[in-house]
Amino acid sequence: PTSDGAAAVILCSEQFLKKSPHLSKQAVEIIGAELGTDEPSVFAERSNLKMIGFDMIRKLSNRLYQTTNLTPNDIQVIELHDCFAPNELISYEALGKGGEIVDKGDNTYGGKWVINPSGGLISKGHPIGATGMNIHVKI
């Protein structure tokens, strides 16, 4: 069920972190993040794939690769926003990999990427207000 949730993150500069070495093991560096929302065309086209974010996943991941100068080969661990059971698999398809990721075992330990090692949003009860930060800091 949808529930209330909240998250808090303390942001600091690298200078502050250097002066506070006792915090270094808890520090997380976020080198890129993208945020998007559905466009009106999603609803006009009556496409189930578009309705659950297929085009948005592709657009945002490409934008993230450009802003960070990373490629999928530079990534080892992925936390996907899997708000519904099929969303993880649909995300694979949107990224151009589809069933290939699963068939090769590239979505788990020993594969190319470890995807949703936390168990994903559903395993946490999908606490709406906390999911975004949870994805960033739980790894």
Topology:
Blueprint: H1 14-19, H2 40-44, H3 48-51, H4 54-68, E1 77-78, H5 87-94, H6 99-103, E2 114-115, H7 120-123, H8 131-137
Parallel strand pairs: 1-2
Helix pairs in contact: 4-5
Verbal overview:
The protein has about 140 residues and is mainly alpha-helical. It has a single domain, classed as 3-Layer(aba) Sandwich (Peroxisomal Thiolase, Chain A, domain 1). The protein has 8 helices and 2 strands. Strands 1-2 form a two-stranded parallel sheet.
Short description:
The chain is mostly helical. It is 39% helix and 3% strand.
Helix content: 25-40%
Supply the number of helical segments: 8
Mean pLDDT rating:
84
Oligomer: single chain
| Overall structural domain count | 1
CATH class: Alpha Beta
Shape: globular
* Poorly predicted sequence stretches spanning 5 or more consecutive residues: none
Number of strand elements: 2
Strand order of the largest sheet: 1-2
Sketch the topology as an H/E string, one letter per element: HHHHEHHEHH
CATH architecture: 3-Layer(aba) Sandwich
**Rg over alpha carbons:** 17 Å
InterPro entries: Thiolase-like, Thiolase_C_2, Thiolase_CS
GO biological process, one term: lipid transport
GO molecular function, one term: acyltransferase activity, transferring groups other than amino-acyl groups
Domain Thiolase C-terminal: 54-133
